[in-house]
Amino acid sequence: MTDPKDRLIRCFTAAFPHLSHEETIHASPNSVARWDSLATVTLFALVEEEFGLNLSIDQLDETEEPISFEWLLGNLVAPTSGEQQTWDTCYGDRRRTYER
After folding, report:
1. What tens digit of pLDDT does each residue of 7-62 get?
2. CATH code (residue 93)
3. Structural domain that includes position 89
């Protein structure tokens, strides 16, 4: 299976094709002028499809730091620490648990 970072790079490249590789891995709403609400929805749809996730944009909006490439990789797509992080899915009563 392909590395989660490479898979996430593909998602970002599809949503932001004008970014270089270096810009992609450091991408955030603050660093990408074209990152608007439509880009966020597009990116989330690509990440959902690529990783088989059900993301709630409302819940992700409540995070303390901006959604970025690094945040998605570390907190949602490829969590690495021993903590357990639970995300509500967009279906409300179903929950997915990710080892973090």
Report:
1. 999 999 999 999 999 999 999 999 999 999 899 889 999 999 999 888 777 766 67
2. 1.10.1200
3. 4-99
